[in-house]
Specification:
Layout lengths: L6 H15 L6 E6 L2 E7 L2 H4 L6 H13 L7 E7 L3 H10 L3 E6 L24 E4 L3 H15 L1
Parallel strand pairs: 3-4, 4-5
Antiparallel strand pairs: 1-2, 1-3
Helix pairs in contact: 1-5, 3-4
Amino acid sequence: MAFPLPAPMRLALDLAARAAAAGEVPVGAVVTRDGAVLATSANAMRSASDPTAHAEIVAIRAAAALLDQPRLDGCDLWVTLEPCAMCAGAIAHARLARVYYAAADPKGGAVEHGPRLFTQPTCHHRPEIYPGIGAEEAAVQLRAFFAKRR
């Protein structure tokens, strides 16, 4: 029996699907605090002509603006793909409490792959990490997106 996904991950996957329809790499992100959604985003690198417009960065910026503070203490990030090094750095600087992600990214990820940023002694903040939530659906979205481009 399959269990329903937590609502924030369901929302992130829906945002990723919309990103794919718009020609962006299908990654969605949601920032929550105490179960309430503070910010949502999807990759916007192409539409914004901004290489830093990853879903995580856009969501972190929006949540920080909403709260009018640079640190997101007590907030959680839900994202459909393992964060890259840039996004992992932003997560550490924002002081997010927990990161839930769907699909692993062996090539570009920086949490359980690559530099494993949060395990480095120089990392000043280590969120709790919960991988694999909605991984199958996220992986299908990504494979379908890139198959169309090959």
